[in-house]
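Cont'd.
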Amino acid sequence: MAKKTLTYEFVKGIWRENAVIKMLLGMCPALAVTNSASNGLAMGLASTFVVAASGLMVSLIRRIVPGGVRIPTYIIIIATFVTLAELFLKAYLPDISKSLGPYIPLIIVNCMIMGRAEFFASKHPVTPAVVDALGTGIGFTWVLVVLGAIREVLGSGSIFGFAFLGEKIFTPWVVMVLPAGAFLSLGLMIGVINYFTLRKRRAA
Amino acid sequence: MKKNSPLKMIITLSVTAIIIGGLLSGFYKLVYPQIEANRIAEEKIAIFTVLPEAKDYDIVEYEILSKKKGTEIVQIFRGKDENGDLMGFAFVAAGPGFQGIIKMMVGLNLEKTYLEGMTVLDHMETPGLGDKITFDFFLDQFKELRISPSITYIKNVKPKHDNQIQTITGATISAVAIVKTLNKKIAIILELLAGPPGKLKVVAEPAAVAVPAAVAVPAAAVAVPAEGKGK
């Protein structure tokens, strides 16, 4: 595979170097907010916005910022975009903002975002930096949605807030919407993915 | 100038901070009205939930001195019926629950003898157990609940007295926390409503505002008494 094409930079974040299931970055939001699919989606999209916008900024200023204050500058930039996202959610999507609670401000310390800024955006021109960030963000989003969907179906008997399993047929497993359910589902999800990846590799 | 000289670092950080600060305060100003409108809309719905017969309300503010926080503003919402007559009071009560603060809107009847209703505004109780405090079967118990001498609770059986509620199986702590918070806050509110003694002072005369119940638009905001009050 050509190492430097934009497609490669975009696709790698979705699967090959997925932040959550391959690199185990951004665990805090991945575990904490995925008790429903829509929470996972909102967190994923907010993080995608932040990682893309800060990737753009970091790449733009990569030649101006002195190495010694590189990290603080990135943190300020990331924090700004997180605050913008938080205010936007509070103003226009108050319900989502309420259910995500303190986890939106915590996007600032999501190491996935810092990682993209430090390892990629600060060393590449604007276009690849943004493409890479978008790929990473989308990769993060789909994992959070899938994780949220699994936990919501098993834990609340609904999906995206739409209850399709009646209480008579299915008793929700409360543990799945609690923190323990997050660890269980994420662990099993990564385990299954690794099992199939390894099997494919061995077969090849 | 060397790339990593201290001066350059200082300049870089300062310039970044100034630009970012300006950007953020600009954006905050832009969205603040919407955030405030959301909050008021939510508050309004809660007031009409706990005072079902109210068609309108106004706000009285009291300034109280508390040992921990210094002065504190307590708002009491005075519900009006269709003739504009006073029919009850609503207020916010907040206190520690099982995992975080439980914030409630509480409605009190005009005679200050029983609760008209209660609804939970904000909580962080355990999903599936503690969050049953937001379910109707629990909240309905607070309708016409006598408050004197105080609200009590009982486990596992139907309440025996008209000032008693039944706790939730698996979430006793959450339900008991609510009762404790309510009793504490009701005492303060009763004291405030009884007229302002020494340490309590009325800082704003009620400004009569017409908020038609049918209009649930955030824009029809409640006119909170303006600045320069307390003269």
